[in-house]
Amino acid sequence: NVVNDLLACSPCPGNSSVQRERHSDEGLAACSCNAGFLRVPPDDAQALQECRFPRRCDVQAYLDLVNLTGPESHKLKNGTCARFVEGNGTNGTMPDSAVCKLSCAQGTSPQLQSDFFKAVDTHVSCSDGQVSGPRPATWCSESSFEIPPLIFVATVTLASMIAFCRMEHRQHAFERRCMQALRLRVTRAPNHRSSSDAKCKMA
After folding, report:
1. Which of 25-39, 51-65, 156-170 reaches the highest mean pLDDT?
2. Per-residue pLDDT reduced to its tens digit, 54-112
3. Whose CA is closest to 88, among 63, 59, 117?
4. How far from 92 is each of 95, 99, 104, 195, CA to CA, in Å?
5. Phi first, then psi: what are they for 61, rounded to 5°?
6. Which of 14, 34, 58, 146 has its CA 20 to 30 A from that of 160?
7. CA 169/CA 176 separation, integer angstroms
8. DSSP H or E stretch at residue 190
9. For residue 125, what pLDDT is reported?
10. CA end-to-end span of the chain, whole Å?
11. For all residues of the chain together, what is the average pLDDT?
């Protein structure tokens, strides 16, 4: 049967394979990139041309561009990203999906502009050659390190004082109710004895 004969065979591009049953009218559409490789072009509606490795990220160039790190006390330090900068055998690049974290000197914490309450993420990540990291206005601040803990302690202390005052108020209210109940019992006791004496005399 000529219809069922294989008329042509198109091999899948490198680093790809047939992931499902192939039909004669699909061609390269039946090919999919192997794990760890990216499709070119990325649109599945277009014909597969190749499967490539994800690109590495130039962390050194990124840090130089955003100007977040430096020896100054208010600037971020390389932290765990130090292993990816130049001079550490990586040529300033980091592999795809890798993550590192910039840090601050001791006694300071990362801060975004003048907001020392908001938590600041200083992670640097790589995704197919694109580096993402802290916002450009991120810096290291002593206020961000000192003020939030003080505010937390003050808040906890104030809450404890309010709770103590409420407990004292409830205790005093309970004592007043007890005293009122005792007074009522004391005032009712003579009347009860008088009525009992009257009954005895009548008898």
Report:
1. 51-65
2. 999 999 899 989 999 999 988 999 999 998 887 677 777 899 999 999 999 888 888 88
3. 59
4. 10, 14, 20, 103
5. -65, -35
6. 146
7. 11
8. helix 142-202
9. 95
10. 131
11. 79
